[in-house]
Amino acid sequence: MRHTSAMQLPACEAVTLFTGNDLAPESLIKLDRATIARIVNDTEQLIADGELDSVRMLVLAKKGQELFNSLEKTARRYAEEHARVARHDKLRLYDAEIIEKETGVSYDYSVCNDATWNELHDVQAEINQKLKEREAYLKTVTTPTLSVDRYTGEMWEVKPPLRTSKQGLNVSLK
Is residue 167 part of a domain? Predict the structure, then answer.
């Protein structure tokens, strides 16, 4: 059931061809969470059964993610100008709920002219720098090593840090 010509089609048609789910724009707008979950589950089953090429689906998903993230950023600018929603009100369209709210709230405390905050901020920056330097040193420790406190003479064993990682696939679009 492999469709070799699918990768030459537009993304919606390719997904439709691969999964059997109609993902044309007029169908995408009708999707709800349950349908999306079903499509993902069905696709996973097809991959597990060997009916879909998992690498092709990964690349297709990555391209779709890139496409839809870019589309969302582009459309959001215009929608935020045109689709005004009254405070505490909800706009329900296309099986979606749209509300207007504050996003990305941040505070700049450096303008407060607060001596205590400024001092704490400076101490924090100094500690962060010392931690960064110490962590750089600890990365070089490969076997347990004795360390001595230069003021008290106290000794302790410094062990190498625990390094963890996960192997995975990185998909870069060209």
Answer: no
In terms of domains, do 84 and 121 share one?
no
Which residues are CB-contacts of 14 (< 8 A; sequence separation ≥ 6)?
A: 6, 7, 60
What pLDDT, on the 0 to 100 scale, is given for residue 77?
86
Domain membership of residue 86 (yes or no) is yes
Same domain, 11 and 84: yes
Same domain membership, residue 130 and residue 49: no
For Cα atoms 128, 131, 134, give the angle at the middle one, nearest 5 degrees: 155
Same domain, 114 and 72: no
By residue range, what is the domain housing residue 154?
109-158
Query: What is the per-residue pLDDT across 77-90, written as a single tens digit (0 to 9) for each?
Result: 888 888 777 667 78
CA distances (Å), origin 20, targets 16, 23, 75: 5, 9, 28
pLDDT of 81: 81
Residues 90, 9: one domain?
A: yes
Q: CA 31 to CA 16: how far, in whole Å?
A: 14
Which H or E run contains 12? helix 11-19
- Read out DSSP for 68-114? HHHHHHHHHHHHHHH----TT--EEETTEEE-----S----GGGS--
